[in-house]
Amino acid sequence: MSETTPPDFHHVPVLGPRSVELLDPRDGGLYVDGTVGGGGHARLILEHCPDCRLLAVDRDPRALAAAREALAPWADRVRFLQVRFDDVVDDLEVRDRGIDGALLDLGISSHQIDVDARGFTFREGAPLDMRMASQGPTAADLLNTAAPEELERIFRTYGEERRARALAREVARRRETTPFATSEHLVAAVVRVLGPRTDAQDKARIFQALRIAVNGELEALEAALPALRDALRAGGTLVVIAYHSLEDRIVKNAFREWSRTCVCPPELPVCVCRGAALGSLLTRKPERPTSDEVDANPRARSALLRAWRKAA
Ligand SMILES: C[S@@+](CC[C@H](N)C(=O)[O-])C[C@H]1O[C@@H](n2cnc3c(N)ncnc32)[C@H](O)[C@@H]1O
Asked: Which CATH superfamily is domain 16-111+217-310 in?
């Protein structure tokens, strides 16, 4: 593929109609799609509200190029920004005017998984890269230089791997003779520690753990939620689709905390703060795709959607 041709980021938006229904774009508002990817959700937002404007954000320049092409019919209502989604609040218009809603559809797109050179896959020969943007250390850098304790934390916390310590030690042992470069190097270490019954899900789990660390994904989400909440105008909505239990826990805790009317310390017998909630939950529990949607779009399988509305 040439560097100038936008790649095929064709993406079926996960929980598309429901996320737009919750976001409720209206009245010429300004909305943020913080993970525009192939533009699937963005297109639905722009179609749903013919006088709304959209800030289309992605940290991956190739995703943004694809989104630019996909959203060309609405170009006069879209502004593209290549930043991490927590940095969108530094945009001058966002600072001056505020936003009416924001959507985050977390994780990576099918394109990023499908193109071996991006290094997100465990298919043989794929470089251990995994960066969404092209700065910073790659997955190979991390495997070759991180302290074994740090690798253990990544495999245990992000990958929920019971044999995290053994895997970290195996990585440290192997890199002394052969530095990690391509996916089969990591797959070999995983199979060695987890045994011959290691399946595709095990490999996917370990690769995902590394990807989360390489891109600082949880840190970006932790930073983005309060920043976007503060940027929201009264009545504005935040919609987040998570694909990992740790991401979903961050979203759940934030939305619950902001919806509490009382913020007194739990040891106080009566409420003294007379606090008003910052807003309210639009989803009591995470919403999931139907089995029909999962059949049509397997990427939707682990999706968990939550939404929160700022007080009017
Ligand atoms: C699941 S895809 C989004 C697909 C999109 N909703 C669609 O319908 O086409 C996630 C996208 O978010 C981007 N991304 C992930 N984390 C990001 C972050 N912290 N800041 C900006 N973009 C991010 C990825 O590069 C990827 O393109």
From this structure: Vaccinia Virus protein VP39 (3.40.50.150)
